[in-house]
Amino acid sequence: MIYVNENFAKLKAGYLFPEIGRRVAAFAQDNPDAPIIKLGIGDVTEPLAPAVVEAMHKAVDEMATHEGLHGYGPEQGYAFLREAIVANDYAARGMDIAADEIFVSDGAKCDTGNMQEIFGIDNVVAVTDPVYPVYVDTNVMAGRTGEGDDSGRYGKIVYMPCTAENNFVPELPTEPVDMIYLCYPNNPTGTVATKEQLKKWVDYAIENKAIILFDAAYEAFICDDSLPHSIFEIEGAKKVAIEFRSFSKTAGFTGVRCGFTVVPKEVVAYTKAGEAVALNPIWNRRHCTKFNGVSYITQKGAEAVYSDEGKQQIQQTIGLYQSNSDMMRQALTEQGYTVYGGEHAPYVWLHTPKGVDSWAFFDLLLNRANVVGTPGAGFGAAGEGYFRLSAFNNPENVKEAMDRIAKL
Ligand code: MLT
User: Fold this and answer.
1) Nearest to residue 124, comparing CAs of 173, 176, 170, 188?
2) Is 42 near ligand 1, meaning CB less than 6 Å away?
3) Residue 41 alpha carbon to ligand 1 centre in Å
4) Which domains does the chain have, with CATH numbers?
5) pLDDT along the chain (408 residues), means of 10
6) Which of 17, 181, 258 to mutate to test the pocket of ligand 1 (most atoms within 8 A of CB)?
7) pTM to 2 decimals?
8) Local structure of residue 148 (DSSP, 8 states)
9) In sequence order, which residues have a C-beta less than 8 Å from that of residue 175 and are 6 or more positions away?
10) For a substitution probing ligand 1, which of 20, 44, 132, 138 has the most ligand atoms within 8 Å of its CB?
């Protein structure tokens, strides 16, 4: 008899964004003329940078020749891209990361979800609450979390609430934890962590032999140079952290698919007997077994993100999304909402009106303003009473959405 992985039955409802998509599709079917504006999932709207398009076209032309055909590439990514990443994302900010510590992949969602596979099943997972659901759901699927309760919390996960009451700064856990997921700039709250705040986590991880799984997918939105773009800007982090990066939000690659993960050679986990084992070769082994590399064409496009023109062009697009979040913060504040985030991140996090829970606010916005957002409760129990609006859209739509919300 074939047995099913019963851990899947522990998952709460559907994955958040398809669930929102389902509700929006049902609404659109009943209201075919409703001019829906989507500020829900953080999906880009602006075209790829011309430098990226040109590089990809060139790569396609190469692939059309015998000499230029690229078959299977290195699973970890081509040297040209890994070296561009090292030079621009790390060396330029004073970090010592080597090309063989970079693993190019089809995006940070897969890597943040897959990374848990290389850790023992008995490890205790700690997440901020609210949190990007991938970290939790993939650990549920693996069987690391125990059962969920009615609020959507799992027995064996340690939740670190991040709410207005603690200024969205998670407290260090009081019980021992092993796998700590952190995301800064934060999805969904749009808040940031300072170097001093991250240093506390690195020190905690060193002292407790824990690991930090650091999602930096939104680092390109940081405007204040004193804020860290990478966990590796923090002393000691190379011993205890793995970092995830993405071209999705940086360069509009949500549909192209490319990201990378940094697994330093120093970072270790331990056998039950207490022996330290380097994680870089383990991740390399896993990556080579389960992944055949990102296409040459995509990696050529990603490389062009680091060219002078590419940098300038993507900065322009990021600037457009940043001005959207400024517009949203200002309009919502004027309308009497309390808003957070959105300064160094493409997400604005707001309190729902008194007495309206986050799914009710979702329905209200969809039905009465035809605007789609994301209910805070979808990111965890502590997200109840909050709502996320994404800045990924064109300024006209964002302005129109703000005007409609004002009329509610
Ligand atoms: C989000 O809206 O939270 C993200 O776009 C989802 C993702 O990156 O997978």
Assistant:
1) 176
2) yes
3) 6
4) 6-47+309-406 (3.90.1150.10), 53-307 (3.40.640.10)
5) 96 83 95 97 97 98 98 98 98 98 98 98 98 97 94 94 96 96 98 98 98 98 97 98 98 98 98 98 98 98 98 98 98 98 98 95 97 96 97 98 97
6) 17
7) 0.97
8) B
9) 124, 158
10) 132
